[in-house]
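Hey, I was hoping to borrow your eyes for a little while. There's a protein on my desk that I can't quite get my head around. The fold is given in discrete form, as structure tokens running alongside the sequence. I'd be grateful if you could look everything over and explain what you see. Here's the protein in full, and shout if anything looks odd to you:
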Amino acid sequence: IRPLYLRTDSLIGTRMLLALTCYSSNPDFGTKYYDERLALLTLGNATSELQIVPNTPPCSECTELTEIGTPDSVLINGKHGVRIELFTTSKNPCCPRPDSVTKVSLYYFIFTPSGMQQVLNIMTHRDEQFHHETGDSVVSYTAQLFPQLDAANNLTSISLTYQISVNTKPVRESVVVYQWNPKKGAFEVSQR
């Protein structure tokens, strides 16, 4: 268990984000290969609760390994939240694949009275390597984010500029804007 983030709320109590680390039971893999899951521990005045945050497929269906980065505090619609970077790779020796995929995603959560709510998930980088008889190829996706804050420091929108390349040659570039929708309580695509 690795502590990631601590927040105290006078009404709810103390909340701690945790990375739950699962190491392989195969002694040959040691601590080199591991998978992390995000959890929220709430220590209230009368009760305590541990919630696993479903940000990746269940371990029984998972072929990838995930590492959780260090969260940053964000304010969204007047609510405290976090931005967390997740690093994912298909280089899982327990589930070998012919291709290789690595990706980085940003997850945005807000704290709610009952726990946490995911309000946005943005992939910021992805490399996929394919092995063919005629030669290998790499498809890459890279994105730059430009967050917009209001006068009260609330995150209101995120502009994302991305590029897709095949074997280092750009094949597509575009811009996506995610706008906070207070009625839905989440970000949504407002422009492409």
About this structure: The two ends are 40 Å apart (CA to CA). Residues 178 and 189 are 5 Å apart (CA to CA). The mean pLDDT is 87. The first strand starts at residue 2 and ends at 9.
